[in-house]
Amino acid sequence: MQLFFQENISPPLITLEPDESKHLCRVLRKKQGDHVFVTNGEGTLFECVILEANPKKTSLKVLNTTEVEPDNFHIHLAIAPTKSPDRMEWMVEKITEIGFHEITLLETMNSERIYLKTDRLEKKIISACKQSLKYRIPTLHSISKLDEILDSEEFAGYQKFIAYVDENHDHHLFDSADPNGKYLILIGPEGDFDPVEIKKALASGFKPVSLGEARLRTETAGLAAVQMLQTLNR
């Protein structure tokens, strides 16, 4: 099953964008009359037949529509970008395959990078969704200051956690989180959160958690947190 992505779909006809059309025609060598599947990234799956296979603008006709039920939990990862953009792109690709719902890029006191091209991350997310057959595109938020996240009323009702290096941690994320919930997990930069930031987070209702005994890279910590919450809910 090859999955294609197209926003703003209005059945019964779909016109694929040039990038998707080129992949369909020149890479997969699909032809008129072949059946393909398309998602709008909002939980709808369209089974279609190709009316015209054109590398610049492929036309499809919708045969069947399926609404995919959303998860009964919600994972929001707030993470400081790594110094190397490649590591962040790798992490975003992998957590998309595993399954998450939102990601916010954090600016912290020890951040080595406070700017990252979100368009590249968005492409990685969409590509990973198609590869892993996911029908909802996770939401990518641009850089936000840590204090903005701590002070936001948006996360009322969330289970809120902050993961940082501390040999005295006795609460593992997997044991601290309750299933079927909404989660906000903070992951710091390569230099970790500043003690002042940790104190603010705890005062704002965040629970300190461990991701295990090993000291993890930022991108590995983000991946581990998403996997733990997925496992908890599966």
Quick rundown:
This protein has 234 residues and is α/β, with parallel strands linked by helices.
Overall description:
This protein is α/β, with parallel strands linked by helices. It has helices at 18-27, 85-98, 118-131, 146-151, 173-176, 195-203, 218-232; strands at 3-5, 13-15, 35-39, 44-52, 59-67, 74-79, 102-107, 139-145, 159-163, 182-187, 207-209. The chain contains seven helices and eleven strands. The protein starts with a strand and ends with a helix.
List keywords for this structure.
234 residues, elongated
Share in β-strands: 25-35%
Any idea what the shape is?
Answer: elongated
Topology, number of strands: 11
Distance between the termini: 24 Å
> Segments where pLDDT lies below 50 for 5+ residues?
none
Using the CA coordinates, give the radius of gyration: 20 Å
Question: What string, H for helix and E for strand, traces the elements in order?
Answer: EEHEEEEHEHEHEHEHEH
Summarize the biggest pleated sheet: 6 strands, parallel
Secondary-structure-based class equals alpha/beta
Structure annotation, total helices: 7
Give the strand order, joined by hyphens, for the main sheet: 8-7-6-10-9-11
